[in-house]
């Protein structure tokens, strides 16, 4: 038997249109670009992305599988409305995983990493004082995931992403009902950085957990009542 090999051929990696759209929609969901209950129509998204319906349809199918979207009868989708029990479940899970990630990040924190977090918070504060909610929400997302990537875990950040896919559409709602000016919006981010500088893992965790609890407290009363 002759064994054939192709040592000169390297694996080919090509990002498809569909994968780019899927990633962009994921980011938009986590950053609160869509509202709870909002319908996402394939034709509208295809026009916005400047593509055919097929990659949009496949991206929606994946996001439905990730439980980030609810499928509708016409093969489009809708942003889920989360009820009180779902929100409580997400709160518990976020507290456990993001609190752990914050502690691990403190253990591995470098001066450069802390400086990067501080720059994000500075931008967040400027956006808050201008009541630029969209920019503020984007910086909030960047802050949390920059910190969680510092944890060194390959497992935790992707799981947290899945949680944010579900709560992201409610982040914008929380930001709109909370006056974040004069440092109020980022105060817990500032507190977490101060704890991180001291190497105080539990302190960093406590600040992040308080931040998470404030978010859920803001939106829980607005959640639809479950039958």
TrEMBL record:
Domain HTH gntR-type intervals: 15-82
Keyword Zinc-finger attached: no
UniProt keyword terms in alphabetical order: DNA-binding, Transcription, Transcription regulation
Record has Zinc as a keyword: no
Domain of life of the native organism: Bacteria
Name recorded for this polypeptide: GntR family transcriptional regulator
Species assigned in the record: Tropicimonas omnivorans
Lineage: Bacteria, Pseudomonadati, Pseudomonadota, Alphaproteobacteria, Rhodobacterales
């Amino acid at each position: 038997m002759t064994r054939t090999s192709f040592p000169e051929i390297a694996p080919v990696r090509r990002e498809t249109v569909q994968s780019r759209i899927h990633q962009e929609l994921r980011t938009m969901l986590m950053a609160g670009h869509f509202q709870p209950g909002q319908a996402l129509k394939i034709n509208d998204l295809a026009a916005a992305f400047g593509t055919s319906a097929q990659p949009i349809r496949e991206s929606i199918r994946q996001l439905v599988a990730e439980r980030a979207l609810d499928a509708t009868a016409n093969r489009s989708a809708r942003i889920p409305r989360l009820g009180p029990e779902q929100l409580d479940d997400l709160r518990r899970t976020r507290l456990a995983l993001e609190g752990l990630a914050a502690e691990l990040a403190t253990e591995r924190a470098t001066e450069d990493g802390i400086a990067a977090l501080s720059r994000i918070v500075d931008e967040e504060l400027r956006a808050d004082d201008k009541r630029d909610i969209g920019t503020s929400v984007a910086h909030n997302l960047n802050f949390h995931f920059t910190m969680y990537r510092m944890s060194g875990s390959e497992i935790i950040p992707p799981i947290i992403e899945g949680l944010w896919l579900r709560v992201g559409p409610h982040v914008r709602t929380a930001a709109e009902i909370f006056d974040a000016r004069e440092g109020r919006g980022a105060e817990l981010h500032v507190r977490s950085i101060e704890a991180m500088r001291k190497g105080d893992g539990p302190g960093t965790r406590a600040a992040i957990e308080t931040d998470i609890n404030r978010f859920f407290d803001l939106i829980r009363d607005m959640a639809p009542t479950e039958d």
